[in-house]
Amino acid sequence: MKRKRIIFDKQGKGRCTKCEAIASYSEKFDAYYCERCNIWLEEKCLDPLCKLCNKRPIRPVKKSLKQKKAKIKWEI
Question: What is the tens place of the pLDDT at every residue in 63-74?
Fold first, then answer.
């Protein structure tokens, strides 16, 4: 059974089912994702030869070096 992580509101905008934030779209990977939760909202396709899904990273948003340093400062 596929997990459905995206819902569409009355305006037709995709939203994350976890936090209700407006979904972002990645043209590079042809999939919706949530920037706030840093998760893909759509599952990979079942085609083993799909170039888009096979290259898709685990997390859609890579954390910048500044974000990592800021987190380290607050943890100390």
Answer: 755 555 555 555
